[in-house]
Amino acid sequence: MVTENLKNVEAKIQAACDRAGRDRSEVTLIAVSKTKPVEMIKEAIDCGISVFGENKVQELVSKYDELDKGLEWHMIGHLQRNKVKMLPGRVKRIHSVDSIRLAEEIDKQFSNAGLIADILVEVNVAGEDSKFGIALDEVEEFLRKISQYSSIKVHGLMTIAPYVDDPEQNRTIFCDLRKKMVDINSKNIDNIYMDELSMGMTGDYEVAIEEGATYVRVGTGIFGSRIYT
Ligand SMILES: *Cc1c(COP(=O)(O)O)cnc(C)c1O
Fold this sequence. Notes:
With 229 residues, the chain is an alpha/beta fold. The protein contains eight helices and nine strands.
């Protein structure tokens, strides 16, 4: 199933890149393997996938420890401060930085490990109460604050768009996030230059690619629906 699904997803990514006049190499597919067993991850690896996303630290750590060290792991879920110490050396990017207190802890733990934390700032573009993330009009102030942390490098912005029936409904969300990145870059804030946009999930990644996504996070479309127990 994973093999067939990946072929399908890859064809759709390529088609979206073609429509947008983008090169396929500008978009990284993150295979979101949360709740899924290592056997399914291995099937994805056999298809050439090496970039995976998890939303829980414990699960990311146990999969990281069990699997080949050449893989890339992305922390995409809400992150609690007391779990940050598990991440240095194990994650390629933390996509879900959404508070100064969390940034401070990330800075501390990565600094202790002698490493730089490569992060994205999570933005709640639609302003949904149910979602984490910085409000769009507070992103600049937030970035100015975290630019002080010497063990954090901000690479870009991430958003989880609303759940919608028609992915076209999320086009303006993705467009607004890209505009925010361009706007911030034009302000030449010290230590802040961003070129990554993590946006688009199974239901809307093609639209996200058309609007400039550099990371798409696809779970269900690759591994099938999740069963939570
Ligand atoms: C689970 C998850 C995804 C993947 O969602 P699908 O709809 O299954 O593709 C993407 N991003 C985040 C932050 C997630 O938690």
